[in-house]
Model the fold of this input.
Amino acid sequence: MNKLIFTIVVIILFASCSSKTKYTLIVTVEDMNEAGEKERKEIIDTIRQTCDSLAYFNGSAAFLVYRNTFALNSYKMSMSKPVDFKVFNEKGIDLRQVLNKSAVHFIDEYYEEHYIRAKPLIEKRKKKMLERE
Done:
């Protein structure tokens, strides 16, 4: 049922969009500085998408990739932990302020569910990688 609703939302998003626009994705990551204190940094990337909803969708997907990559590789290399993301339109406005709140909530919940589901698989893969070393 959840997949059906998701599919319908994506179809509606595609139908309501036309030409590609440039969006800015900012992923906030947390690191430890030399003094052992938490320090936040920003990773800035560009998204080209046809509408605000799909740009936010892509930003959320990219954040999921950052989180999963950190979960899988942080044991063997120093990596910054992704803690938040924002997507801005060409006017510099955060898409969370522009989009329908229920759509943002739905997209966030969708990717959070995928992240939670992936955790056991990531831990299993990480264990196998450690055994090979």
Q: What stands out?
A: The mean pLDDT is 84. Strands lie at 21-32, 38-49, 81-88. The CA atoms of residues 71 and 119 lie 8 Å apart.
